[in-house]
Amino acid sequence: MQLTGAQAMVQALEQAGVTTIFGYPGAAIAPFYDALVDSNIRHVLTRNEQGAAHAASGYARARQVTGVCVVTSGPGATNVITGIATAYMDSIPLVAITGQVTTDLIGSDSFQEVDITGATSPFTKHNYLVKAAQDLPRIIKEAFYLASTGRPGPVLIDVPQDIQMAVFDFVEPGDLYLPGYRLVTEADPEQLLAVKAQLESARAPIICAGGGVLSSKATQELLALAEMCQIPVVTTMMGISAIPYDHPLYLGTLGSHGLFAANYALNQADLVMLIGARVGNRAMGSAQEIARRAQIVHIDIDPAEIGKNIKPHTAIVADAKSALTGLLALAPQTDTSEWVAKTDEIKASHHLPEKPATASETIYPPTLMRILGELAGPDALVTTEVGQNQIWVANHYPFRKPHAFITSGGMGTMGYGLPSSLGAKVGCPEQTVIAVSGDGSFQMSLQELGTVKQERAAVKFVLLNNSRLGMVHEIQSMRYKRYSQVFLEENPDFGKLAAAYGLGYGRIHSNDQIADAIRTMLDTPGPYLLECQIDPHEPTLYPVRKEEKG
Amino acid sequence: MSQHTLSVLVNNHPGLLSKVSGLFSRRSFNIHSLAVGICEIPDCSRMTIVVNGDEAMVDQVIKQLDKLIDVIEIEHLPVQNSVYREMVLAKVAVEASQRTELLQIAEIFRAKIVDVSLHHITLELTGQADKISGFLNLLEDFKILRIVRTGTIAVPRYEEA
Questions:
Q1: Could A180 and B26 be called an inter-chain contact, meaning their C-beta atoms sit closer than 8 Å?
Q2: What is the mean pLDDT of chain A?
Q3: In chain B, what are the domains?
Q4: What is the value of ipTM here, to two decimals?
């Protein structure tokens, strides 16, 4: 069978089970877009290539499949870089296809040429510059396999325009041959026994669950082990939703912006079992100190994570699900009753009481998050931007089901929440999708409201407006005692903006309006923007604020 | 800090060298030398990478290299039980009066004369890094025009069956 490279690309995507892609056409990817006309694959046209990558990432996370974005060469390719790096840091399976100038022009600095494989190699799991059309079926098959197996991540395929146009005799790609890609997924039985012994001798163990628990779909096993052995659980930012927010053993999120009880437990524990967590500096600033005080068990599918940021006493290189299943079968006999009583007490005594907002005519964000979660229900998916909005959602939104939280944890990418919510809604049209943002971050991918309109994606946007870059403002207030470039006093009229993009709109400024406004937002068909006035001095770092007040 | 030698089998891809060297710079790994060439396996190259670092760092170097899909196999060569070689070409300006002295040094080190003219001699020497360094030290009395030195290549003394 004779195919063009472009036809082979479309066919390979179909064979990989792809039904929806996000992208933006251009000259160097035009043959692919032409072949796409004959396919049933749905294409979502974003307003900027970065939006395509973020939307594909949101789609991937909502549906737990590999997301796909397709863009042109040069600026199209460089615009997806932030999206690829964001996916890499959070281990999100993504296949990014970029058009490239024709083979004979590569290296001549021709129009819209950029070395995108060179540029993205530090933050792709793997990338390809395709040299022959007959390699396309194999490369695309490999790309999906690499992106979705082991530790997931983005894979980029750069396809010169002439390769897309070349006609070749199509041959089904055979079995994949990747001698340099070794997957260890099954936990070593001896290591499991060692962990069992450590758990049994521990008196104050905690489990720190990271994103790996979610990507290996091991949340049931996590819960079962925590309950069986009575081990308190903390999560990293990426681990949020791995355990229901109100589970008695759950202490909250770790780190500088985490909850007191979680950090307390980490610092008092005599055993820390890290599962699918990479001990990032934002979660564990003093990893080496913790390792001196406590036994460290590290379970991760990526061998390079073992020993990178913390030296474990026992390590298991395996899929989190396999390791947890193995541990459950060994049924460790633990006695943690005193410890659990202690963490219960700390959790109860450091529970942040709800209160009116600190300034009048404003909303207290934690209350907003609680009510939002109660009314949206357990199946709602929530995306965030980065900044105070992310911290309030992370610490106060009542997540009950796994995978409901979609955020840029590692890269901290502002401009992620809006397009990723679009991707999530496209992927899961039956589920409520809420995009929480600040007024700064909402404007960073603002143009994607055009895509929301075009796709009639009924995303519910909750905008926390404090007319400034709240997180930087908070840092400047604490550390620098003066402000620099954080004020957004000339924000647009968000009501008119909502109208321009066909969004329903509401605006609230006091806690007693929250419930009604959210009901209206959820009941109104189509996309909706709820603007919430918040106090610009409302902090996310509560303990520090207390000290500041003296 | 000590020196570690890695023998790395890779797919012979254009761009692979930049992936490997890029990995070293962005993870702040201290690379001492890198030598690469084709090997006994078709479509593969073997790299010899010498790194400076403690055990934890070398462990990370190996694991991060192993994550590259085009890296097929990594061997951390045993320090004592391996053969190391590098090569240097030294082009030295030399007048007739100094020539005998230079040739004596070359003979002691078993360096080869690979090019000669009225005003210069080019010497070739292979050996372990310390031998090369010793040789170059002795050349400091001469006017050196150019020194070109390869990275270390190495093989373990025993092949695993």
A1: no
A2: 95
A3: 2-76 (3.30.70.260), 82-155 (3.30.70.1150)
A4: 0.89
